[in-house]
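Quick one from the shared queue. A colleague (R.T.) flagged Protein HOTHEAD as missing a structural entry in our internal table.

Convert sequence to structure tokens.
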Amino acid sequence: MLSSSWNLSIFSSLFGILILCIPCFSEKAPYYTFARDATSAPEVVFFDYIVIGGGTSGCALAATLSQASNVLLLERGGLPYGNPNITNINGFTRNLADTSPSSPSQLFISTDGVFNHRARVLGGGSAINAGFFSRASNEYVKRMGWNPEVVNDSYEWVEKKVAFRPQINQWQSAVRNGLLEVGVRPYNGFTYEHLDGTKVGGSIFDQQGHRHTAADLLEYADPIKISVYLYATVEQIVFRTRGGRKPRAYGVRFQDSEGNSHLAFLNRGSKNEVLLSAGALGSPQMLMLSGIGPIRQLNAHEINVLVDQPMVGMGMSDNPMNAVFVPSPNPVEVSLIQVVGITGFKSYIEAASGPLELDWMRRMAHDFARVANQTMDSFKIPSVITIPGINPHLLHSPMQAGLILEKVAGPYSTGFLELTSKDPNENPVVTFNYFKDARDLQRCVHGMRTVAEVIDSTSFSNFRYPLTTSQALMNTMLTFPLNLRPKHLTASVSFEQFCIDTVMTIWHYHGGCQVGKVVDGDYKVFGVDGLRVVDGSTFIESPGTNPQATVMMLGRYMGQKILGDRLAGRRN
């Protein structure tokens, strides 16, 4: 699950278009004695717990379990440390623009025609997102049936390592004041809590611009009881079937970067488990590859059917995001998401800013056209950016600019995921069905109207050219290749059509292994024993304004619960 950021289809993401021009910092990589390349793994290993996926949830889960058990964490990517495009705020867009086979962010395009990414690095989405850190609402915690005290303790455990109070400068201050001016009230100051109104949230970027990821939570791990194998691609979960009993997971088969196959088995004991934390694409994909899923799909790929489970891969949702690009007559600071307006109509208003390098943007457009099999005639940045009320000569590179976006909460609209092959490295095919439910479209319309009001507000006037209107800026968005969806002339006069035509991702997709449909309230997979799914694929709706805080919390929360159950079993 990618956290509070925008879509990298060039102009589609507000960060995808912003080169963040601040000095480059290098962060020393914490030295983990327990993290090594999977090529060094023995052919066969044994552990109490095997965690598949060293992402936002998996790192917290593995670190917690290692406090009382022997744990193996398998991650298909490498370390986030030492890569300045991950560790430094100015590398954010370059990281997402990397389409190489070893990129930490793996590009995929949904059937809806929207560009998206999945993480391929220790730390998961927290290593490639825009860093906003905010908790889920109390109502969300209650709906999930979680223990509020343990949830709060788990959030605090995460926050001690990765969350920081950002420094708010001119652009973010203007957005904050604009939100208050147009009625997104009250002002709640700085807080991690999810509260209606306008607030300053946390960030996993510290005030020196260094990123702190879920991989940092492994500093909590017992180095004697945990092993982390990097560049380890899990091919299949293996099960034991006996008589009339349910199949029981007892290990995994994984491959290293040189193509060597390895087996990791669970030690003997009824409390030992395989824990799947591969994310909203990876977890349902791995269940299917292991024989748990819709029988039609499994048969189509000649996968032995362990459990015919039609709900695996269903309920896939991605929160729609729409944005407006705002050239500024005055210098702007480099900022990612810091301020958010949490509206009563369930739309979240956020912003980012920084110098825009047009030449770099056009090179990136060329790369995306190649990946999307589009010609540059149909997929390009205009050679001259024309915005009514602004002298074109002022729109030169580097351009002082920012974006203001709205994200639809929920959402109500859902889709599905299907396998493309038996290769775990290959992205499954995903359909999110943006705005299929009319309630999501109405939330977007309300959100975009609020964005327009903020742009036109007195509080924001220092960052808006005097003769430019929000409508002119929205019309300009229609000229950029935000996605692969068709464009309609009515989008310039209809908020509804604007939302549909310019929809992007904010990387908060979820579902595929939902609670009550694929897993129970303890995240145990229906129909089998010894297997749980603990990540954002279990969510019915996205928590809060950005899910990463809650996904990390969930790893810690469930790790404690699993260890508690283990201890209770010993007493009994």
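The chain has two domains: 34-76+125-160+211-318+417-424+513-571, 167-200+320-409+436-502.
The radius of gyration is 23 Å.
Added to the table.
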